[in-house]
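Intended use. Records like the one below are meant for learning the mapping from a protein sequence to its folded structure. Do not use them to infer anything beyond what is encoded.
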Amino acid sequence: MVADAGLAGILLVGLGGALGALARFGIGRWVAHRHGRHRFPVGTFLVNLTGAAALGVLHGLGAAGDAALLLADGFLGAYTTYSTFLSEGVGTRWRPLYLIGTLALGAAGYVAARLLATP
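Structure written out for the chain above:
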């Protein structure tokens, strides 16, 4: 979608991406401060599940154009994190639960949020 967005669209994705990365960083720090460091990556798990549900809401509401560039491609693209999900998943003894749980609950959250948000 970004390829045909033009300069304004690219700037929207960049702005959303910066805000999404800061939100992910802030939530990760908050979880670590509040609950301590666990072998189970609670912060990344929380971020990826809420991000999947938020994307479902955006799709359910029919977000398109600038709103989709800013929120879906930009914010949620940076907020959720596949690389950290895999990296932390490999390093935890909870690996099967974490990897399968994130995928299953993320998909369920996306579908449920999309259905609830669809007018």
